[in-house]
Fold:
Amino acid sequence: MNPDSLHVVLVEPRNSGNIGAISRAMANFGFKNLLLLDPKVNHLSQTARNRAKHSQEILTKAKKTTFNKLKKFDYVIGTTGKLGSDYNITRTPIQIESLAKRLSQVKGKKVALIIGRESSGLLNKELELCDFIVHVPTDKKYPIMNISHATSTLLYELSKQSHSKRLEDEFQPIGSEEKTRLLKIINQAIKNLPFRTKDKQETQKKIWKRIIGKSFLTKREAFSLMGFFRKIK
Structure:
């Protein structure tokens, strides 16, 4: 999804350090729109700034809002650490991965991700104002996350598809032409090695073909292997 489309909304934050940490997480994953709904603390305090590190701009530009103003968003997504049953529709979440996939298909729409209070999360009446909710799976013995940790996890998942695409663009695996060239060099090196039988030599060729096929080598890695096997006389 377009990072500009997403707004992170903190409901009644009481810990300025959490606000700063969330600001930093937003910067880490490429998001920049932070809204504070009835904050109970100064988000520009020194504690918040210290935790924000190099995301001071996000912190400084954070705006205050109300639940009523959330009507301007096309989609409002709630978060909860407490799950309900099939009969509690309000607290029936979707998977994070499903949320990320759906939002990746949303073009030009404004989305609000609502993060609940540190102490009690979002109330049922507030969750009912959301289009749907999302939940971070945690251990049953200690299910409730700190809001900065939960937000970081959610933003990571929401940004993962675009970041993965960027990595794919930067690190393209070799194609059939490079694989053929590399295997030819490897096979020549194997031929030069003193194997006891022809079968053992052929087995090595098959194993290396399988290794190269499964590795999805980058061009840099392939060229390094070519240089290495050329040295085997």
In short: Residues 100 and 228 are 42 Å apart (CA to CA).
